């Protein structure tokens, strides 16, 4: 081994993550505990994943039952919980069929493959490109990294998978560049999560959707972060008055149990016939059970209405703080996907929050990203707002 190859990590785990200096060992509801027994209000929700809070009882119960029954049998056989979850998703969305996988990147990989196959099956063999947007995030696999419109994520990994073209988000001029004769699909987030909590403008999305419809270009939304109630509706597209052709889900779908899904309208889904795509684990009995319980809880327990009303109140509080403190430049996002644009770097504030018992995230250098569990209470949010004010007046702003 060359003595210049220094492993920064003392662990036999690859050093791909810049980790915060705490170790979380337990979670319940809106809270997690570290290995010293310190309790934190978790407003990262495992990066928009534990939408029902940590270890939600309904999911715990369903998983426990399935643990005694069957863990895995492969997709060589029909899997009842998978069928049930697909039915629930289809019943509560504009889509007709579902493909199951294990992560957000895999769901986007499936969408990318489907878009290519759709073009070939429908007499557009020259359509080999997919349009994505600057500042987007679609995953870390070969194709989804290439689909991601951020140079820092591509760095060191050329040659990139070809076939992606990046346009400017929320840009009128981009609308004219979508249909250049080689585009089979557009893939985008309705709120760019990792890229800075940038919300797509309603009018721009309507026009983009129309451009796609007229040219038979697939309109594919990556709802890996915005889906499963995060924005106050089950899926963010509902708030835009559009019907996408394809949608991808992961993060919140299994409440922390790994599962991803790609949903499509029937005329598009038919391009995925037997042998075209697959996954060993995708939609296995355990993962699907977690998905069913998550969907049922979101739908039956008034959680979406809670997010809508509470996030309105929260937004007002944040706007008030913005008026009082120069540190907050802007408040953006929808529902419980919130970005506070700061006039300074976010990292020191994230550390200060953690020391005071609250976990929050960043999205780029100057954005404080706040992702409360959808089940967080008004009291918890009040504690957070109080602490935010305290942190901001702590001699830093
Ligand atoms: C997190 C995320 C992904 C990637 O999901 P993984 O499960 O980490 O592969 C893709 N798209 C968006 C919008 C995401 O937020």
Please explain how this structure is put together.
This protein has helices at 45-48, 57-69, 80-91, 104-121, 142-147, 151-154, 172-177, 202-215, 266-269, 285-300, 303-324, 347-355, 378-393, and strands at residues 24-28, 31-34, 39-42, 97-101, 129-133, 164-167, 183-188, 191-192, 198-199, 218-222, 246-249, 260-264, 328-334, 337-342, 358-359, 361-362, 367-370. It is an alpha/beta fold. It is globular. Bound molecules: pyridoxal-5'-phosphate.
What does this entry show, briefly?
With 397 residues, the chain is of the alpha/beta class. The chain has helices at residues 45-48, 57-69, 80-91, 104-121, 142-147, 151-154, 172-177, 202-215, 266-269, 285-300, 303-324, 347-355, 378-393; strands spanning 24-28, 31-34, 39-42, 97-101, 129-133, 164-167, 183-188, 191-192, 198-199, 218-222, 246-249, 260-264, 328-334, 337-342, 358-359, 361-362, 367-370.
Shape: globular
In CATH terms, the superfamily of the largest domain is: Type I PLP-dependent aspartate aminotransferase-like (Major domain)
Order of helices and strands: EEEHHHEHEHHEHEEEHEEEHHHEEHEEEH
Note the total helix count: 13
Ligands, deduplicated: pyridoxal-5'-phosphate
Please identify the structural class as seen in this structure.
alpha/beta
Shape-level CATH architecture of the largest domain = 3-Layer(aba) Sandwich
Q: Order the strands across the largest sheet as they lie in space.
A: 4-12-11-10-7-5-6
Radius of gyration, in Å, reads: 21 Å
Q: Tell me the domain tally.
A: 2
How much strand content do the residues show?
15-25%
Q: How many strands, which pairing sense, and closed or not: the largest β-sheet?
A: 7 strands, mixed
């Amino acid at each position: 081994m060359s003595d210049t190859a220094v492993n920064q990590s003392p662990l036999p785990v690859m050093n791909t993550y810049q980790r915060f200096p705490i170790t979380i060992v337990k979670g319940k509801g809106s809270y997690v505990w570290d290995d010293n027994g310190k309790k934190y209000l978790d407003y990262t929700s495992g990066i928009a994943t534990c939408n029902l809070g940590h270890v939600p009882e309904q999911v715990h119960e369903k998983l426990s039952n399935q643990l005694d029954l069957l863990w895995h049998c492969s997709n060589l056989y029909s899997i009842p919980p998978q069928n049930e979850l697909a039915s629930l998703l289809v019943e509560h969305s504009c889509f007709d069929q579902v493909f199951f996988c294990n992560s957000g990147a895999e769901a986007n990989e499936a969408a990318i493959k489907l878009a290519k196959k759709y073009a070939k099956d429908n007499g557009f063999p020259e359509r080999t490109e997919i349009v994505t947007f600057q500042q987007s995030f679609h995953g870390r696999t070969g194709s989804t990294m290439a689909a991601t419109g951020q140079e820092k994520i591509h760095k060191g990994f050329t040659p990139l998978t070809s076939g992606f073209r990046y346009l400017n988000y929320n840009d009128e001029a981009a609308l004219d560049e979508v249909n250049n004769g080689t585009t089979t699909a557009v893939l985008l987030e309705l709120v760019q999560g990792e890229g800075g909590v940038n919300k797509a403008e309603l009018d721009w999305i309507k026009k983009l959707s129309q451009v796609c419809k007229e040219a038979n270009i697939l309109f594919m939304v990556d709802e890996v972060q915005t889906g499963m109630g995060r924005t106050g509706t089950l899926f963010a597209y509902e708030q835009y008055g559009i019907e996408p052709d394809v949608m991808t889900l992961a993060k919140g779908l299994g409440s922390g149990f790994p599962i991803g899904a790609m949903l499509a309208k029937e005329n598009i889904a038919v391009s995925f016939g037997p042998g075209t795509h697959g996954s060993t684990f995708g939609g296995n009995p355990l993962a699907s059970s977690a998905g069913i319980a998550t969907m049922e809880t979101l739908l039956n327990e008034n959680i979406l209405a809670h997010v809508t009303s509470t996030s309105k109140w929260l937004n007002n509080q944040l706007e008030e703080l913005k008026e009082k403190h120069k540190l907050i430049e802007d408040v953006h996002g929808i529902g419980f996907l919130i970005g506070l644009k700061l006039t300074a770097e976010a990292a020191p504030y994230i550390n200060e929050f953690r020391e005071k018992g609250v976990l929050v995230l960043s999205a780029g250098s100057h954005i404080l990203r706040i992702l409360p569990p959808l089940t967080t209470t008004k009291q918890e949010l009040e504690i957070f707002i109080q602490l935010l004010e305290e942190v901001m007046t702590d001699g830093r702003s």
